[in-house]
Amino acid sequence: MVLAMVRLSVQYGNCIFSSAAYCIYGAMLCDKLGDINSGYRFGQLGIQLLYQMNAYYLKAKVYMIYNTMIKHFKEPVSETLPNLIQGIQSGLETGDLVYSGYDAFFFTQNLFFCNHPLDVVAKNAHKYIELTGNNSKSKSHHLGLKILLQTVLNLQHLSKNKLLIIGDIFTENDISSTLFENSTMMSHLNLCKTNISYLFGDYDAAISSSQQLKEYQESNPAFFMYLVNNFYYSLSLLANYNNKSFPERKKYLNQVQINQKRMKLWAHHAPCNFLHKYDLVEAEKARILGKNDLVIDLYD
User: Fold this and answer.
1) Counting beta carbons within 10 angstroms of the beta carbon of residue 2, is it exposed (0 to 12), middle (13 to 18) or buried (19 or more)?
2) How far apart are CA 290 and CA 194, in angstroms?
3) CA-to-CA distance for 221 and 47, rounded, in angstroms?
4) How many domains does the chain have?
Protein backbone atom coordinates (compact mmCIF):
# COMPACT_ATOMS: atom_id res chain seq x y z
CA MET A 1 0.00 0.00 0.00
CA VAL A 2 2.76 2.41 0.93
CA LEU A 3 4.72 1.68 -2.25
CA ALA A 4 1.56 2.28 -4.31
CA MET A 5 0.94 5.60 -2.56
CA VAL A 6 4.51 6.75 -3.21
CA ARG A 7 4.35 5.65 -6.84
CA LEU A 8 1.06 7.47 -7.44
CA SER A 9 2.39 10.61 -5.76
CA VAL A 10 5.45 10.60 -8.01
CA GLN A 11 3.37 9.99 -11.16
CA TYR A 12 0.43 12.31 -10.56
CA GLY A 13 1.54 14.80 -7.92
CA ASN A 14 1.28 15.04 -4.16
CA CYS A 15 -1.84 15.10 -2.05
CA ILE A 16 -2.05 15.59 1.71
CA PHE A 17 -1.76 11.85 2.35
CA SER A 18 1.53 11.74 0.46
CA SER A 19 3.20 13.18 3.57
CA ALA A 20 2.36 10.05 5.57
CA ALA A 21 3.29 7.78 2.65
CA TYR A 22 6.74 9.37 2.29
CA CYS A 23 7.40 9.00 6.00
CA ILE A 24 6.38 5.33 6.13
CA TYR A 25 8.44 4.67 3.00
CA GLY A 26 11.35 6.43 4.70
CA ALA A 27 10.97 4.12 7.70
CA MET A 28 11.05 1.10 5.39
CA LEU A 29 14.23 2.37 3.74
CA CYS A 30 15.94 3.00 7.08
CA ASP A 31 15.05 -0.35 8.60
CA LYS A 32 14.23 -3.09 6.12
CA LEU A 33 16.44 -1.88 3.25
CA GLY A 34 19.29 -0.34 5.25
CA ASP A 35 19.35 2.90 3.21
CA ILE A 36 19.33 5.31 6.13
CA ASN A 37 20.29 8.47 4.23
CA SER A 38 17.49 8.07 1.66
CA GLY A 39 15.00 7.07 4.35
CA TYR A 40 15.84 10.14 6.41
CA ARG A 41 15.39 12.39 3.35
CA PHE A 42 12.00 10.86 2.57
CA GLY A 43 10.97 11.45 6.18
CA GLN A 44 12.00 15.09 5.96
CA LEU A 45 10.09 15.37 2.69
CA GLY A 46 6.97 14.07 4.45
CA ILE A 47 7.31 16.67 7.21
CA GLN A 48 7.93 19.46 4.69
CA LEU A 49 4.89 18.45 2.66
CA LEU A 50 2.73 18.37 5.78
CA TYR A 51 3.37 22.08 6.27
CA GLN A 52 3.27 23.04 2.60
CA MET A 53 -0.21 21.54 2.23
CA ASN A 54 -1.35 22.78 5.66
CA ALA A 55 -2.53 19.26 6.55
CA TYR A 56 -2.74 19.94 10.26
CA TYR A 57 -5.22 17.13 10.93
CA LEU A 58 -2.55 14.63 9.81
CA LYS A 59 0.10 16.08 12.10
CA ALA A 60 -0.41 13.60 14.96
CA LYS A 61 0.03 10.68 12.53
CA VAL A 62 2.94 12.04 10.51
CA TYR A 63 4.79 13.23 13.62
CA MET A 64 4.38 9.80 15.19
CA ILE A 65 5.80 8.05 12.11
CA TYR A 66 8.74 10.42 11.64
CA ASN A 67 9.70 10.68 15.32
CA THR A 68 9.38 7.00 16.20
CA MET A 69 10.57 5.28 13.02
CA ILE A 70 13.07 7.63 11.33
CA LYS A 71 14.51 10.47 13.38
CA HIS A 72 16.59 8.32 15.76
CA PHE A 73 18.59 7.01 12.79
CA LYS A 74 20.17 10.46 12.38
CA GLU A 75 19.46 12.64 15.42
CA PRO A 76 19.49 12.27 19.21
CA VAL A 77 16.41 10.38 20.33
CA SER A 78 15.87 13.09 22.97
CA GLU A 79 14.96 15.48 20.16
CA THR A 80 11.84 13.44 19.42
CA LEU A 81 10.30 14.41 22.75
CA PRO A 82 9.07 17.97 21.99
CA ASN A 83 7.72 16.84 18.61
CA LEU A 84 5.77 13.97 20.16
CA ILE A 85 4.26 16.44 22.65
CA GLN A 86 3.11 18.50 19.65
CA GLY A 87 1.65 15.36 18.11
CA ILE A 88 -0.34 14.63 21.25
CA GLN A 89 -1.78 18.14 21.30
CA SER A 90 -2.57 18.14 17.60
CA GLY A 91 -4.38 14.81 17.86
CA LEU A 92 -6.49 16.07 20.74
CA GLU A 93 -7.38 19.26 18.86
CA THR A 94 -8.32 17.50 15.61
CA GLY A 95 -9.99 14.44 17.12
CA ASP A 96 -7.28 12.01 15.99
CA LEU A 97 -7.35 10.13 19.27
CA VAL A 98 -5.67 7.03 17.85
CA TYR A 99 -2.46 8.84 16.93
CA SER A 100 -2.64 11.16 19.91
CA GLY A 101 -2.55 7.96 21.98
CA TYR A 102 0.40 6.63 19.98
CA ASP A 103 2.28 9.91 20.46
CA ALA A 104 1.61 9.79 24.23
CA PHE A 105 2.83 6.21 24.45
CA PHE A 106 6.02 6.76 22.44
CA PHE A 107 6.76 10.04 24.22
CA THR A 108 6.76 8.24 27.57
CA GLN A 109 8.71 5.28 26.20
CA ASN A 110 11.39 7.60 24.77
CA LEU A 111 11.61 9.42 28.12
CA PHE A 112 12.52 6.05 29.58
CA PHE A 113 15.05 5.28 26.83
CA CYS A 114 16.66 8.70 27.30
CA ASN A 115 17.34 7.79 30.95
CA HIS A 116 15.19 10.50 32.49
CA PRO A 117 14.74 9.98 36.24
CA LEU A 118 12.30 7.16 36.95
CA ASP A 119 10.08 9.49 38.96
CA VAL A 120 9.72 11.72 35.88
CA VAL A 121 8.86 8.74 33.67
CA ALA A 122 6.32 7.50 36.23
CA LYS A 123 4.69 10.94 36.49
CA ASN A 124 4.22 11.14 32.73
CA ALA A 125 3.01 7.55 32.52
CA HIS A 126 0.34 8.30 35.15
CA LYS A 127 -0.68 11.41 33.21
CA TYR A 128 -1.11 9.65 29.89
CA ILE A 129 -2.70 6.54 31.40
CA GLU A 130 -5.45 8.86 32.60
CA LEU A 131 -5.65 10.54 29.18
CA THR A 132 -5.90 7.30 27.18
CA GLY A 133 -8.12 5.54 29.73
CA ASN A 134 -11.10 7.66 28.69
CA ASN A 135 -10.72 6.84 25.00
CA SER A 136 -11.98 3.56 23.54
CA LYS A 137 -9.65 4.04 20.54
CA SER A 138 -6.55 4.06 22.76
CA LYS A 139 -6.94 0.78 24.65
CA SER A 140 -3.63 -0.62 23.42
CA HIS A 141 -1.74 2.62 24.22
CA HIS A 142 -3.36 2.63 27.66
CA LEU A 143 -2.09 -0.89 28.33
CA GLY A 144 1.36 -0.07 26.92
CA LEU A 145 1.68 2.85 29.32
CA LYS A 146 0.63 0.62 32.21
CA ILE A 147 3.33 -1.88 31.25
CA LEU A 148 5.93 0.89 31.27
CA LEU A 149 4.75 2.24 34.63
CA GLN A 150 4.86 -1.23 36.18
CA THR A 151 8.39 -1.66 34.79
CA VAL A 152 9.43 1.61 36.45
CA LEU A 153 7.96 0.40 39.74
CA ASN A 154 9.96 -2.82 39.40
CA LEU A 155 13.16 -0.82 38.91
CA GLN A 156 12.28 1.25 41.98
CA HIS A 157 11.76 -1.96 44.02
CA LEU A 158 8.08 -1.08 44.45
CA SER A 159 6.68 -4.28 42.94
CA LYS A 160 5.70 -7.69 44.27
CA ASN A 161 8.36 -9.45 42.17
CA LYS A 162 11.15 -7.43 40.58
CA LEU A 163 11.72 -10.05 37.83
CA LEU A 164 8.09 -10.19 36.68
CA ILE A 165 5.90 -7.38 35.39
CA ILE A 166 3.24 -8.11 37.95
CA GLY A 167 1.74 -5.56 40.30
CA ASP A 168 -1.15 -3.26 41.05
CA ILE A 169 -0.76 -1.38 37.75
CA PHE A 170 -0.30 -4.26 35.29
CA THR A 171 -0.08 -8.04 35.45
CA GLU A 172 1.57 -9.84 32.54
CA ASN A 173 -0.18 -13.11 33.42
CA ASP A 174 -3.49 -11.55 32.42
CA ILE A 175 -2.76 -10.35 28.87
CA SER A 176 -5.96 -9.27 27.15
CA SER A 177 -6.77 -9.83 23.48
CA THR A 178 -6.34 -6.07 22.95
CA LEU A 179 -2.68 -6.43 23.86
CA PHE A 180 -2.02 -9.88 22.40
CA GLU A 181 -3.23 -8.82 18.94
CA ASN A 182 -1.07 -5.68 18.88
CA SER A 183 2.48 -6.52 17.79
CA THR A 184 3.82 -3.10 18.82
CA MET A 185 2.59 -3.43 22.40
CA MET A 186 3.66 -7.07 22.66
CA SER A 187 7.11 -5.94 21.50
CA HIS A 188 7.05 -3.27 24.19
CA LEU A 189 6.11 -5.83 26.85
CA ASN A 190 8.95 -8.12 25.83
CA LEU A 191 11.47 -5.26 25.81
CA CYS A 192 10.41 -4.25 29.32
CA LYS A 193 10.84 -7.87 30.44
CA THR A 194 14.27 -8.00 28.76
CA ASN A 195 15.28 -4.78 30.47
CA ILE A 196 14.43 -5.79 34.02
CA SER A 197 15.66 -9.38 33.53
CA TYR A 198 19.07 -8.15 32.35
CA LEU A 199 19.42 -5.47 35.02
CA PHE A 200 18.44 -7.88 37.80
CA GLY A 201 20.66 -10.69 36.50
CA ASP A 202 18.20 -13.23 35.05
CA TYR A 203 20.02 -13.57 31.74
CA ASP A 204 18.16 -16.64 30.44
CA ALA A 205 14.87 -14.76 30.81
CA ALA A 206 16.35 -11.67 29.16
CA ILE A 207 17.51 -13.70 26.17
CA SER A 208 14.12 -15.42 25.85
CA SER A 209 12.25 -12.09 25.88
CA SER A 210 14.67 -10.57 23.35
CA GLN A 211 14.15 -13.48 20.99
CA GLN A 212 10.36 -13.19 21.26
CA LEU A 213 10.56 -9.49 20.50
CA LYS A 214 12.63 -10.14 17.37
CA GLU A 215 9.77 -12.23 15.97
CA TYR A 216 7.46 -9.21 16.19
CA GLN A 217 10.11 -6.97 14.66
CA GLU A 218 9.98 -8.74 11.31
CA SER A 219 6.54 -7.30 10.50
CA ASN A 220 6.94 -3.92 12.18
CA PRO A 221 8.72 -0.66 11.25
CA ALA A 222 11.95 0.52 12.82
CA PHE A 223 10.71 1.69 16.21
CA PHE A 224 13.58 2.73 18.46
CA MET A 225 12.70 -0.05 20.89
CA TYR A 226 13.82 -2.67 18.35
CA LEU A 227 17.24 -1.05 18.14
CA VAL A 228 17.42 -0.91 21.94
CA ASN A 229 16.54 -4.61 22.01
CA ASN A 230 19.58 -5.34 19.85
CA PHE A 231 21.71 -3.81 22.60
CA TYR A 232 20.17 -5.68 25.53
CA TYR A 233 20.07 -8.93 23.56
CA SER A 234 23.83 -8.76 22.98
CA LEU A 235 24.57 -7.78 26.60
CA SER A 236 22.42 -10.65 27.88
CA LEU A 237 24.14 -13.20 25.63
CA LEU A 238 27.57 -12.03 26.77
CA ALA A 239 26.58 -11.94 30.43
CA ASN A 240 25.35 -15.54 30.16
CA TYR A 241 28.31 -16.77 28.09
CA ASN A 242 30.29 -18.44 30.87
CA ASN A 243 27.23 -20.39 32.01
CA LYS A 244 26.93 -22.28 28.72
CA SER A 245 28.60 -25.17 26.92
CA PHE A 246 31.14 -24.61 24.14
CA PRO A 247 28.62 -25.13 21.25
CA GLU A 248 26.18 -22.71 22.90
CA ARG A 249 28.95 -20.17 23.46
CA LYS A 250 29.76 -20.29 19.76
CA LYS A 251 26.10 -19.62 18.89
CA TYR A 252 26.03 -16.73 21.37
CA LEU A 253 29.10 -15.08 19.84
CA ASN A 254 27.70 -15.55 16.32
CA GLN A 255 24.46 -13.82 17.32
CA VAL A 256 26.35 -10.97 18.97
CA GLN A 257 28.34 -10.55 15.76
CA ILE A 258 25.10 -10.33 13.74
CA ASN A 259 23.68 -7.80 16.20
CA GLN A 260 26.86 -5.72 16.18
CA LYS A 261 26.95 -5.55 12.39
CA ARG A 262 23.61 -3.75 12.47
CA MET A 263 24.58 -1.65 15.49
CA LYS A 264 27.73 -0.51 13.69
CA LEU A 265 25.64 0.77 10.77
CA TRP A 266 23.35 2.65 13.13
CA ALA A 267 26.33 4.03 15.06
CA HIS A 268 27.85 5.34 11.83
CA HIS A 269 24.73 7.39 11.08
CA ALA A 270 23.76 8.38 14.65
CA PRO A 271 26.70 7.99 17.04
CA CYS A 272 24.75 10.06 19.56
CA ASN A 273 22.30 7.16 20.00
CA PHE A 274 24.32 4.06 19.19
CA LEU A 275 28.10 4.41 19.36
CA HIS A 276 28.27 4.02 23.14
CA LYS A 277 26.04 0.94 22.85
CA TYR A 278 28.30 -0.55 20.20
CA ASP A 279 31.43 0.13 22.26
CA LEU A 280 29.95 -1.31 25.45
CA VAL A 281 28.99 -4.57 23.73
CA GLU A 282 32.46 -4.77 22.17
CA ALA A 283 33.97 -4.22 25.62
CA GLU A 284 31.88 -7.01 27.12
CA LYS A 285 32.83 -9.31 24.25
CA ALA A 286 36.52 -8.54 24.75
CA ARG A 287 36.12 -9.20 28.49
CA ILE A 288 34.77 -12.73 28.07
CA LEU A 289 37.48 -13.47 25.47
CA GLY A 290 40.22 -12.32 27.86
CA LYS A 291 41.44 -9.41 25.70
CA ASN A 292 42.24 -7.20 28.67
CA ASP A 293 44.01 -4.32 26.91
CA LEU A 294 41.14 -3.98 24.45
CA VAL A 295 38.63 -4.15 27.30
CA ILE A 296 40.23 -1.14 29.01
CA ASP A 297 40.26 0.96 25.85
CA LEU A 298 36.67 0.12 24.96
CA TYR A 299 35.34 0.84 28.45
CA ASP A 300 37.15 4.20 28.37
Assistant:
1) middle
2) 26
3) 18
4) 1
pLDDT in tens, 92-128: 999 999 999 999 999 999 999 999 999 999 999 999 9
Tens digit of each residue's pLDDT (9 = 90 or more) over 152-195: 999 999 988 899 999 889 988 767 666 778 889 999 999 999 99
Q: CA separation (Å) from 242 to 63, 237, 281?
A: 44, 10, 16
CA distance 69 to 63: 10
Q: Alpha carbon of 17 to those of 22, 55, 103: distances in Å? A: 9, 9, 19
Residue 294: other Cβ atoms inside 10 A: 15
Look over the chain and give the mean of its residue pLDDT values, rounded to a whole number: 93
Domain contains 239: yes
Helices (H), the chain: 2-12, 18-31, 36-52, 59-69, 80-94, 97-113, 118-133, 139-155, 177-180, 183-199, 203-217, 224-239, 246-269, 271-288, 292-299
State phi, psi for 171 to the nearest 5 degrees. Answer: -125, 115
The distance in angstroms from the start CA to the end CA of the chain is: 47
In a domain, 56, yes or no: no
Three-state DSSP class for 166? Answer: strand
Question: For residues 38 and 29, is the Cβ–Cβ distance under 8 A?
Answer: yes
Structural domain containing residue 251? 200-300
For CA atoms 237, 238, 240, 244, the dihedral sign is positive
- Identify the bridge partners of residue 171 per DSSP, sorted by sequence position: 166
In a 3-state reduction of DSSP, which class is residue 71? helix
How many residues in total does the chain contain? 300
Residue 217 within any structural domain of the chain: yes
What's the CA gap between 160 and 20, in Å, rounded?
43
